[in-house]
Design goal:
alpha+beta; Arc Repressor Mutant, subunit A; 3 strands; globular
Length: about 120
């Protein structure tokens, strides 16, 4: 429950797991310098594309993501986090690390999920 509280405090825009999953995917792609387009996000997450479109609009309206046309294929849009989202996610990572007992500067989500499996 403490981790959920940290999500509410530090990632208040992640009101649903759909939004949270989208944000985590966007941040993971950004961390690896991978271009991620809306079509790929829709394919990777098992949610309604129409609902996800609304979340994209909300995140963009809140200044958390930038959506630009893919220069290689104008039919697709590339999604990147803004500095505002990076800052919020970093603060959440630090809080999550302290909650989960990690003593590093970053919280390794993949390692935590592997430990739970």
């Amino acid at each position: 429950m403490t981790l959920r509280q940290a999500v509410r405090e530090l990632l208040p825009f992640c009101e649903t797991f759909v939004t949270y999953d989208m944000v985590v995917l966007i941040m993971a792609a950004d961390e690896t310098s991978t271009s991620l387009n809306i079509k790929a996000i829709n394919a990777l997450l098992p949610y309604s594309p129409s609902y996800m479109r609304q979340i994209f609009r909300d995140l963009q309206g809140d200044g958390l993501i930038e959506v630009t046309r893919d220069p290689r294929d104008k039919r697709n849009s590339i999604v990147k986090p803004t500095a505002k989202l990076r800052t919020a996610f970093a603060a959440f990572g630090r809080r999550a690390a302290s909650i989960m007992g990690s003593d590093g500067d970053r919280y390794d989500v993949k390692a935590a999920l592997a430990a739970l499996a």
